[in-house]
Design brief:
Order of helices and strands: EEHH
Largest sheet: 2 strands, antiparallel
Number of strands: 2
Number of domains: 1
Pfam families: CxxCxxCC (PF03692)
Bound molecules: iron/sulfur cluster
Strand order of the largest sheet: 1-2
Radius of gyration: 13 Å
Strand content: under 5%
Helix content: 25-40%
InterPro entries: Puta_zinc/iron-chelating_dom (IPR005358)
Protein name: YkgJ family cysteine cluster protein
Length: 92
Amino acid sequence: MDDAQFPCTRCGLCCQHISHIEQLAKFDRGDGVCIHLVDHLCSIYDDRPEICRIDEMYHKAFKTYFTKEQFYYENGKVCRDLQIRYGVTKGE
Ligand code: SF4
Ligand code: SF4
C-alpha cells in the first residue's frame, strides 16, 4: 500500500480545526481556521507544513507504530468524526 494515497474528500474540516495543533499556531486566524484555507482548499498546498502532510508524517513519526493501512484508518476516523459532527456528507 506504499503507493496509496490517503482518501481525503477535501471537505476542509481538518483545516478549520487547527487550534489544538501546536505546529500550526501561527496559521490560526483566531477561531481555529487556518489562514491558508481558501474555498475549502489549501492555498499553499505545495509548501504546506510537514504536519499537514500525512504520508511524510507517517514515515517520519508513525511507521514504527502503525502499518500505513492502520495509520490511514485512524486518520480517517478523525475525518469521519468531524464530518458527522458538522453534517458534511461529501467533499467540497
Ligand atoms: S478532514 Fe479529512 S477528508 Fe476532510 S480535508 Fe481533512 S484530511 Fe481531508
Ligand atoms: S496549511 Fe494548508 S493543509 Fe495545513 S492546515 Fe492550513 S490550509 Fe490546511
